[in-house]
Amino acid sequence: MKHLITAAALAALAATPAMAGEIRVGSVAGVTGPIAELVAPIVAGRNLAAAHINANGGLLDGDTLVLVLADSQCDPKAGVDAGNKVVNVEQVVAIVGASCSGATNGMVQSVTIPAGIPSVSDSATAPSITDLDDNNLVFRTAPSDAYQGAALAKLAWEAGYRKLAVTYANDDYNAGIAEVFVANFEGLGGKVTANQVHEPNKASYRAEITTLSGGGAEALALFAYYGGSGITIIRNALETGAFGKFMAADGMFDVSVIEQIGAENLRGNLMITQSASDPSNTSYQLFAEAYKSTGMDPGAPYAAHGYDATFLIALAIEQAGAADPALIAAALPEVANAPGEIIRPGEWEKAKALIAAGKAVNYEGASGSVDFDAAGDVPGFYSVNTINAEGKFEMRFLR
Amino acid sequence: MEQYYGYFLYLLSLLTMGGIYAVLTLGLNVQWGFTGLFNAGIAGFFAVGAYVQAILTTPIYARHLGGYEWPIPLAMLAAMALSAVVGYGVAKICIRLRADYLAIATIGIAEIIRLVFKNEGWATNGPRGISQIPKAFEDLPQPWNTLAFVAMVLAIVMVIYLALERARTAPWGRVMTAIRENEAAAAAAGKNVERFRLESFVIGSALMGLGGALMAQYLKQIDPQVSDPLTATFLVFVMLIAGGSANNKGAILGAMLMWTVWSATEILTSRLPDEFAIRSAYVRIFLIGLILQFILQRRPQGILPERRPKPHPRLRGDRAPAANTGSTKQ
Amino acid sequence: MTCRRRFGEIMDATPILRVDNLVKRYGGLTAVDGASFEVRRGSITGLIGPNGAGKTTTFDIIAGAQPPTEGRITFEGNDITGLPTHELFHLGIVRSFQIPKEYGRLTVIENLMLVPPDQPGESVWATWFTPGRVRAREREVLELADEALDFLGLSHLREELAGNLSGGQKKLLELGRGMMTESKLVLLDEPGAGVNPTLMNKIIEMIRRLNAERGYTFCIVEHDMDLIARLCDPVIVLVEGKVLTEGPFSEVGNDPRVIDAYFGGAVSAAGPA
To answer: Where would you tag: which of A138, B95, B265, C156 has the fewest CB atoms within 10 A of its CB?
Structure first.
């Protein structure tokens, strides 16, 4: 075991305790691994937030926010290891990340929840993170995939539908969205006349459609991938005359739907939701401008979420008034949610002054309003896509 | 002091992961070190163990098979058993193949296993994986839960070590080594080569399954990425070869050492400016290769080379020494 | 017949091994073409022939390394055609290899201790749960191995890795493996190949002693006519995959057909060995 002692000594030498005037926050990301290309812009988003904060007075009494990068490789093994390092060796007070849902799940369950360190993930979207028994330590600025179901239910209700039939492909993603959709639609007062799972990649779905059409539904809510079963189901439904109107989630968002079914059949009859940032939002524009000036593309997926997660942790440290993990965890929802004066990306000085004055702040992020619910999740932001006169998708941002 | 407590906890995490990898390297040592079976599909057996542990112990959850809530030790035995069964099936088909073909076949099988777990979403929650896996001793307060888990992992490593060391120095290990050294001659000495190779493969697979079961508990989350060939097959080979193939102590040493290198180098690289820190993440993978090169150049048999059991004492008094027989004349 | 016995004991006249009409084809090539012969119990039978006569193939088939295309092999009256090598071992048939196949990373004594059958320690369960039984048998095996080492004159190399032995010592070790079991028939593949005259004498001596003292029957494939002449009786001559003749070396060596096969036309007809 001699080598271990050597290694420990090495680690001790390498990791000097946090220097005075420095507050460390872990930046855990899948730097290597399957989504490495996606992660670089996200890390850039986090670093941009840290730069904004440090350039405008820093944390508390002028302390520097130091982001300590650790590689989660998009793998729970590496996620747990990275969490152990930033928490135990680097002694961080909070963590941004990890990137992938699996790595995040491993890291928070195995390391940060037992250690009492709050974490804010900027790109983990698995619904299973919502279900964790996390002592209110796990947050995320990336919306759970399941939220899309809620957004679509609201859209359906507002479009005047009261009776719907539901079918979903037998995979995690679509089943998850459908489950949430049904619960929300019924919650709004709607009636689900039939709810049926189907196996993807069958040649015909006429049998399923016959069953679904029994209850007198006004439209069919369809959760599937366009290539797997979605297009076939719409075609079969139109052929049999069982359904004429459809709602769908982003698994159906593809031009081949229009090409294969025909725009004339779908115009006014199909709504597809899709995750999106609001381009007209002031917060987003502020972020996009700053991010662009560093030579990056603000459209990069989850870059805005990375910025928001980091900025929120900084606000929470400021609100807590100390680099104390438990206080930071408690302060996170306070700074993210209403009530309070609205703070936008880059407005660190303003926020610092307000908090110092004892006023409440409410961060409105680049990725959305980032209001945490009880599970530490944020609602997603979505657009609805319909087919216009030219036979193309037309996007409308949902507010 | 908090800082040193933190180092202590990190050391425990190194010991835990090192210990779990040691279970895998010991398993590989049975196959490759003792018997010379080139199993390039460690990740597959590891994944079987991890998923069996996860499915059998997790509470009911809508998105994957579960709700059996088996006691943890029982699930670990089941994980070993099922990995052994899969190992038996694979060996039945592939064991006659020559080393390089066996490697190709096992790579393929591991990939098939990974894809099955990835695609059979009803059972495994697909790419999202299984979360909230119960972990032994997790109800104890910190740091006792961590300490107890480390102690369990190291105790398991110790038991495996003792069992394998006894088997290695017994006639069983002698036959395995003979098969590795020369298959045809082992057959000529009446050994059923195929049966022994099969046995070795199955024992190794069971240990890999156990490694998976421990890993699933430790991480509390598994998904197909856990059985990524880089960290679940390649790294295990590196550990064994660096530590000393066919040497059980070497297998454990290699696992501990390589995992420490793999993990602790990041503490240094994260000190670099961000741009370099991102790049240096790849340098760590390179570094592992470099260390392997260095060890193989300096010590071709690994840090702890293979050692035969202690000399057998002569049972009868010394006879007339050497070169006595040629003189017998008729 | 031509059976004579050098050491004067009464010899069992029934064949220990019988090869009937053995044929081996590789695609279009016929390596063995209907060879039939017998090996008498207690004899040291030589199997010779020019290059390509099919003697190595015949040897491999008897040793279970490959199955014949046609034909039958009987050992002590039982059909053993196509049985794998390790099963033949348990019937009492032990083989050596032309190029010594030692277990390089086992010690010399382990090389021998490996061989005996019925070792409970070969079950991994037994090593864990009945170590007493394992140890008891291990003592017997060790004694046997030391005996063999003494016989071979290799005792001083007991704990050496077999891979470090000289070529000649490896040859002796091959021979020693045959002593570690109740061998009935020992198949030797060119025991004299690449061996210096001193060692050759020693090997011949060993074979004679094993034959005389332990009653092993030997079947030897050999190129070296000196060794054959000094050791083997009878000698079976294979030419073009068939038995040309058999008899004592003195008769066979003067047979014009044999001389012709070695030095005449048959050489040009050499096929695969």
So the answer is: C156
- When mean pLDDT is compared across A11-25, A288-302, C188-202, the lowest value belongs to A11-25
Q: Which residue of chain A is at minimal alpha-carbon distance from B120? A: A171
User: Which structural domain, as residue segments, surrounds residue C127?
Assistant: 106-164
CATH number for the domain harbouring residue C243:
3.40.50.300
Residues of C in contact with B306 (CB under 8 A): 105
Tell me, yes or no, whether C113 and C54 share the same domain: no
Q: What is the pLDDT of residue B142?
A: 82
Domain that holds residue A93: 2-142+302-363
Whether residue B218 lies within 8 A of chain A, CB to CB, comes out as yes
Split into its structural domains, chain A has a count of 2
The answer to whether residues C84 and C190 belong to one domain is yes
C209 and C93 within one domain:
yes
Domain total of chain B:
1
Q: Do residues A151 and A164 share a domain? A: yes
When the pLDDT of each residue in chain A is averaged and rounded to a whole number, the result is 87
Strand order in the sheet with C235-239: C93-95, C185-189, C217-221, C44-48, C235-239, C242-247
B126 to chain A nearest CA, in Å? 7
User: Which residue does chain B place closest to C139, by CA atoms?
Assistant: B315
Phi-psi region of B141 (alpha: psi -120 to 50; beta: other; left: phi over 0): beta
User: Which residues of chain B neighbour C124 with C-beta distances below 8 Å?
Assistant: 167, 172, 199, 203
> Same domain, yes or no, for A316 and A184?
no
Tokens of C242: 């068939």
Cβ-contact C171, C191 below 8 angstroms: yes
Q: What is the interface pTM, i.e. ipTM, of the complex?
A: 0.88
Could you tell me if residue A285 is inside a domain? no
How is chain B split among helix, strand and coil, in percent rounded to 5? Answer: 70, 0, 25
> What are the tens digits of pLDDT across the range C3-49?
444 444 445 567 899 999 999 999 889 999 999 999 999 999 999 98
Pairs from A7-14 (Cβ < 8 Å, separation ≥ 24): A7/B14, A7/B260, A7/B261, A7/B264, A8/B7, A8/B10, A8/B11, A8/B14, A10/B264, A11/A89, A11/B7, A11/B10, A11/B264, A11/B267, A12/B4, A12/B7, A14/B264, A14/B267, A14/B268, A14/B271
In a domain, C1, yes or no: no
Nearest C-alpha of chain C: how many angstroms from B200?
Answer: 10
**What's the CA gap between A49 and A120, in Å, rounded?**
14
Distance from CA of B73 to the nearest CA of C (A): 21
Residue B152 lies in a domain: yes
Cβ contact A335:A139 at 8 Å: no
- The neighbouring-strand residues paired with C20 are C72
pLDDT at position A293: 92
Q: What CATH number is attached to the domain comprising A151?
A: 3.40.50.2300
Instruction: Tell which residue, C6, A275, A72, has the closest CA to residue B266.
Output: A72
**Domain annotation covers residue A119:** yes
Q: What is the number of residues in chain B?
A: 330
Same domain, C209 and C262: yes
Q: Domains in chain C: how many in total?
A: 2
Per residue in B98-156, pLDDT (tens digit) is 778 899 999 999 999 988 988 787 788 877 889 899 999 989 988 899 999 999 999 99
- Contact map slice: B 252-281 vs A, CB within 8 A: 253, 256-257, 260-261, 263-264, 266-268, 270-271, 274, 277-278, 281
Q: Residue C106 and residue B181: Cβ atoms within 8 Å? A: yes
Is A296 domain-assigned?
A: no
Taking CA atoms, what residue in B is nearest to A48? B274
Task: Let me know whether A69 and A21 are in one domain.
Answer: yes
- Helix, coil or strand: residue A40: helix
Q: Which residue of B has its CA nearest to A10?
A: B264
Q: Are residues C186 and C98 in the same domain?
A: yes
Q: What is the pLDDT of residues B284-306, one digit of tens each?
A: 778 888 888 888 888 888 999 99
